[in-house]
Specification:
heterodimer; A: 343 residues; alpha+beta; BirA Bifunctional Protein, domain 2; 2 domains; 7-stranded mixed sheet; 10 strands; 20% strand; rod-shaped; B: 825 residues; Phenylalanyl-tRNA Synthetase, Chain B, domain 1; OB fold (Dihydrolipoamide Acetyltransferase, E2P); Phenylalanyl-tRNA Synthetase, Chain B, domain 3; 21 helices; 41 strands
Chain lengths: 343, 825
């Protein structure tokens, strides 16, 4: 190994580099690049060979030539890496583009469900009063006529009894009716609890009206009952104002005006002003002392208020429902409009 | 109650330019809903003038009398019109509609040629103007008006009628007089009451000797007093004055004859129902009594009514004359030949009249007033007023009165005025309270903080502090009441918010909605045919029957949610739905427990504990169910391909998911139960009690309802599922799991659930889960191949292969022992 020193010209190195860089830049895909790697970067490439022959270069030139070859090799490697990265990116991008789909295609493989809007409305009302600290009470729909009428100061043969068209159950002497209001739940609450009582009673009620655009024999009410020391009619008014604002929005106006119910004295009707007109909402008043006494509550110590309104009417006015048939017929297209909320 | 403004004006002096709108607002303010305001004059448009008849030419040769009338309307020339009426003569003043006028019913008047003459307008009758029923002739104006002047003014036709709704506690307002008192109070105007003294004096002065019919109250509970006034010599041809028939029409009553019209008029005016009997038809005394032995009575409406012994009657010695306070009898009615009249006014017991009315399903103007309570002092006044009208307009002579009984004493209450402000929640000064109660008609005697209040005779409902509070609040308007919120106190029971059952109903409803079910609210009414179609037996066939259903089509209460939900599903199909998923939650009704009868309950005090218990036991328990149906596809078809039809698995899966949400565990077994397919119904149990069922509906039912085959249905008894105690969390084990598969043959009668349970028990505590991953049954074979994956995990170590295969052996052995399983591998 004592052959004569050789000389590698800088131009030669430059040419090898230029050739390699040209080939790398012209590689169209990763397969071509693989070939190029063998030809221009690998152990048998001209630049590798030049490096291998560095030992034969004279000592005086070796450092300079070595530096030139090293720089050229680094340039080639860098160019290779860059090209390889670009080609991988291009390949992957192309693959993703090919996987593109039309995401606007309908995908409704499952049934679309919904709550009945009366249920959502009921939840909304319950949540308001639960938030205030009230209890939510329920009771049977097939009810004792004593609880539905007598305990509420509606004795037999009182004209108020015929104000409500009652469904009676056979045999008549069993004293069972389909409750005409949720008020018997108030009576049950008073029989079962001592004051203070803060309760709302939502539920289904029945009156023998034919189904038409605005009536249904089976409907829903929510009633409220408060019995405590020092409860006033102003408290009733404030509670109704809050209730109306929650359901119809903060700008709603309410009014109460004198009316008659056997179970309240004084009695009132509550109206709200909505979409440019007064709408009758429900009945209310201070609990009649006779009702308190029939339930064993001392009317000299406690006073209370009660109110009650129909959910169907509330829903119809707020949500622009013009025909009761839509509410009762169970056509899924109706409830689906509302999803699981009513707003 | 229809109130013509002109009639109200007899009791109130309205200020000049008073508008009907003010009266409407005032009525609403004091608690009378205004149904509508009717003003027939508003329906008359165009020229309507007063004219004087100048000439009458009778046209001859026609089928009916026709006149060609010359009229002076203050115009340059005489106006000629054709007229079919003959009740007028030259010189009379009449009402003429000129061409261009439009009368009610869009009746346009124009000049036209008829009977060979040119008619330049029309002479009008009351009916043509919509002012009354009278069409027997044209209107002849009673007094002289300026020719050519506005006839609406001459007729005083511009008289709006306010129709108010009178609540049951305000019977005193079922008269013009009573309503006017309320209106005057609401408007702050003075009320001109009837001058009783002058009226009574006038009647006494007119008294002439003659025959008197004697009255008697045999049933003191039925009536507290009666006035029976005897008159004779009624002119049978006397007509009801036009002002009176007009007012009757305005108030919605039909004019009949002078005597009847007068009783009706006085009733409308004062609120006291009256009855005029033909005195010749009364044998002996006229009595207030119960029907007793009298069996039947033909009433004015020509109906033969079977009497109940309890009916309150007006009768004579021999026969019933009238259903007291409700309707008169046909035979004793005044007729065209009546000259002697017995005019009856009584104060009946409201309950007795309510019962009369209810028993005979007969609600009359009279019964509605008596039921709501009539001022007991009115009988004397109203009968005197009616007698004077019979004298004035019927030429009758008054012979005297048989009066029995006494008006009850006025009620006196003691109140503390401060309590009124305390109840309403705003301060009313003693002066204000005095003013309001005085306006209502109360008399007040004050002694310090205690006031003795005598209520007026027409307000027997004013007894308690709250009654007086309402009057004061009403007088000053409810708008004066401020708006405050009570500070809610938590009750002694500690119960607040929603109950666990309410929370459960809500969360399951929402879960179903998100699982694709749409909620419906079905009426809980079914019929016998449905009950039979659904095949309900036992407890689920026992229901309640409505005595007065809206339709005989569905008089029964549902014992299950399925009939309603499946019918509604079918309705959706009929309207074009291809697949439906519906759910409902609600009460069901089963007549399965003997009910107590609540007896002798008083309302004046709380029932005893035993009575409350009895009362509660008189009402059947009504269970809360939630149920759902999928008919058609469970997964829908679309551009992606076919859908997947629902089958029993969907029902069982949903029920399982729902129950996992609310129970700590349950067992499933196969059961035969209507309305499900006998081989495709799962029963879910907790503590051995059924709590839910799910499966495919019996094909007989789906076929009958036109629903797809394999329609599935599930129902959960929400209140039968025990409320879960708070969940005690188990620590999550980070150790690796060891998996073992086991496969076996079992007889087809053994359920997979039972095998899984045996494996679970056999494998012991280290078993984390059992999952069936394969099931195969060769057709015609009794053996089923089942393959399960058993997952084991220990809290403290990695399980070895030997350990878990030993556990697997034990699991297999248990399944072999309990289920007869032949372990394959």
């Amino acid at each position: 190994m004592s052959s004569a020193p050789i000389s590698i010209e800088p131009a030669e190195i430059e040419a090898i580099k230029a050739q390699a860089l040209k080939a790398i830049s012209e590689a169209k895909n990763l397969d071509e690049l693989k070939e190029i790697k063998i030809a221009h970067v690998g152990d048998r490439s001209p630049i590798a060979k030049a490096n291998q022959s560095l030992g034969q270069v004279s000592m005086e030139q070796r450092a300079t030539t070595g530096k030139l070859i090293g720089t050229a090799r680094a340039n080639i490697n860098q160019a290779f890496d860059d090209r390889e990265r670009d080609l991988i990116l291009a390949r992957d991008t192309k693959a993703l583009v090919e996987e593109k789909v039309d995401v606007t295609l309908p995908v409704n493989r499952r049934h679309k469900g919904a709550l009945h809007p009366l249920t959502s409305l009921r939840h909304e009302i319950e949540d308001l009063f639960v938030g205030l600290g009230y209890q939510v009470a329920e009771g049977p729909e097939l009810e004792s006529s004593w609880l539905n009428f007598d305990a509420l100061n509606i004795p037999q043969d009182h004209p108020a009894r015929s104000m409500q068209d009652t469904f009676f159950i056979e045999p008549l002497d069993a004293g069972l009716v389909l409750r005409t209001h949720t008020s018997p739940v108030q009576v049950r609450t008073m029989l079962e609890n001592e004051p203070p009582i803060y309760v709302i009673c939502p539920g289904r009620t029945y009156r023998s009206d034919e189904l038409d655009a605005t009536h249904t024999p089976v409907f829903n009410q929510v009633e409220g009952l408060v019995i405590d020391k020092g409860i006033t009619m102003a408290d009733l008014k404030g509670t109704l104002d809050l209730f109306a604002a929650r359901i119809f929005g903060p700008d709603v106006t309410t009014r109460i005006r004198p009316s008659f119910f056997p179970f309240t004295e004084p009695s009132a009707e509550v109206d709200f002003f909505y979409n440019g007109r007064w709408v009758e909402w429900g009945g209310c008043g201070m609990v009649n002392h006779k009702v308190l006494e029939a339930c064993g509550i001392d009317s000299k110590i406690y006073t209370g208020f009660a109110f009650g309104m129909g959910l169907e009417r509330t829903l119809m006015v707020r949500n622009g429902i013009t025909d009761m048939h839509d509410i009762v017929e169970g056509d899924l297209r109706f409830s689906r409009q509302f999803g699981t909320g009513t707003r | 109650m229809k109130l013509p403004l002109s009639w109200l004006a007899e009791f109130i002096t309205f200020p000049k330019g008073f508008k009907v709108e003010s009266a409407v607002a005032a009525f609403v303010k004091v608690g009378f809903e205004v149904e509508e305001v009717i003003n027939p004059a508003e329906k008359i448009k165009g020229p309507l003038k007063v004219g004087t008849v100048q000439s009458i030419e009778e046209l001859t040769g026609l089928r009916k009398p026709i006149r060609y009338v010359g009229l002076d309307l203050g115009e340059k020339e005489t106006r000629f019109v054709i007229c079919g009426a003959s009740n007028f003569s030259v010189g009379d003043q009449v009402v003429v509609a000129l061409p261009g006028a439009v009368l009610p019913g869009d009746f346009a008047i124009s000049a036209r040629e008829t009977y060979g003459r040119v008619s330049n307008g029309m002479i009008c009758s009351s009916r043509e103007l919509g002012l009354g029923e009278d069409h027997s002739g044209i209107i002849v104006l009673g007094s002289k008006f300026k020719v050519g002047s506005d006839a609406l003014e001459a007729l005083a036709a511009n008289d709006p009628i306010i129709d108010i709704a009178v609540n049951p506690d305000r019977g005193y307002a079922m008269s013009v007089h009573g309503a006017a008192r309320e209106l005057a109070m609401a408007l702050g105007l003075s009320f001109k009451d009837v001058d009783r003294k002058t009226l009574f004096a006038k009647l006494v002065k007119s008294k002439k000797s003659g025959k008197i019919t004697v009255a008697e109250i045999k049933d003191k509970d039925g009536a507290s007093l009666i006035f029976l006034r005897s008159l004779s010599g009624l002119n049978p041809s006397a007509l009801t004055p036009s002002w009176m028939s007009r007012r009757l029409s305005q108030a919605g009553m039909r004019p009949i004859s002078l005597a009847v019209d007068i009783t009706n008029y006085v009733m409308l005016e004062l609120g006291q129902p009256l009855h005029a009997f033909d005195a010749e038809k009364i044998e002996g005394k006229l009595k207030v009594q119960r029907a007793g032995k009298f069996k039947s009575l033909k009433t004015l409406d020509n109906q033969e009514r079977k009497l109940s012994a309890e009916d309150l009657l007006i009768a004579d010695e021999k026969k019933p004359l009238a259903l007291a306070g409700t309707m008169g009898g046909l035979d004793s009615e005044v007729s065209e030949s009546t000259s002697r009249i017995a005019l009856e006014a009584a104060h009946f017991n409201p309950v007795a009249i309510a019962q009369n009315s209810r028993r005979h399903i007969l609600s009359s103007e009279a019964s509605r007033r008596f039921e709501r309570g009539v001022d007991p002092t009115l009988a004397e006044l109203a009968s005197a007023r009616a007698a004077l009208l019979l004298i004035e307009f019927g030429g009758a002579k008054y012979h005297g009165t048989s009066a029995k009984g006494l008006a009850p004493k006025p009620t006196i209450s003691t109140i503390s005025p401060d309590e009124i402000s305390a109840l309403i929640g705003t301060t009313y000064s003693p002066t204000e309270i005095t003013k309001a109660l005085t306006a209502v008609g109360c008399k007040i005697v004050k002694s310090g903080k205690k006031w003795k209040i005598t209520s007026p005779s027409w307000r027997r409902d004013l007894l308690h502090i709250s009654d007086f509070a309402e009057e004061v609040a009403r007088f000053y308007g409810y708008e004066r009441i401020p708006s405050t919120l009570p500070l809610v106190k938590i009750p002694k029971s500690g119960k607040t918010g929603l109950t666990p059952l309410q929370i459960r109903r809500r969360s399951l409803s929402l879960a179903l909605a998100f699982k694709g079910f749409t909620e419906v609210h079905n009426y809980p009414f079914v019929n016998q045919t449905q009950m039979e179609l659904f095949g309900f037996t036992g407890d689920r066939a026992k229901t309640f029957k409505i005595a007065n259903p809206i339709s005989d089509q569905s008089p029964l209460l549902r014992t299950h949610l399925s009939p309603g939900l499946l019918e509604t599903a079918a309705r959706n199909f009929a309207r074009g739905a291809k697949s439906v998923a519906l759910f409902e939650s609600g009460l069901i009704f089963r007549d399965i427990k003997k009910l107590e009868k609540a007896t002798n309950l008083s309302t004046s005090k709380r029932p005893s504990a035993a009575q409350v218990k009895e009362l509660y036991a008189s009402v059947p328990f009504q269970s809360l169910h939630i149920g759902g149906v999928i008919a058609g596809e469970a997964e829908l078809f679309g551009w992606w391909g076919k859908g997947r039809s629902a089958d029993w698995q969907d029902a069982v899966a949903i029920t399982t998911e729902l129950l996992e949400e609310i129970t700590g565990g349950f067992e499933i077994s196969s059961v035969e139960l209507a309305p499900w397919h006998p081989g495709r119904c799962a029963e879910f149990q907790v503590d051995g009690k059924p709590i839910a069922h799910a499966g495919e509906i019996h094909p007989r039912i789906t076929a009958a309802l036109g629903l797809p085959e394999r329609t599935v249905f599930f129902a959960l008894v929400l209140d039968a599922i025990p409320v879960r105690q708070p969940i005690v969390s188990r620590a999550v084990i980070p150790m690796p799991a060891a998996i073992q598969d086991i496969s076996m043959f079992v007889d087809e009668s053994i359920s997979a659930a039972k095998v899984a349970q045996s494996l679970r028990l056999g494998a012991g505590e280290l078993l984390e889960s059992v999952a069936l991953f394969d099931r195969f049954q060769k057709s015609g074979e009794k053996q089923v191949s089942l393959a399960f994956t058993l997952t084991f995990r220990a809290p403290d170590r990695t399980l070895t292969g030997d350990e878990v295969s030993a556990l697997r052996e034990r699991a297999g052995a248990r399944a072999a022992k309990e289920c007869g399983a032949q372990i394959r591998s």
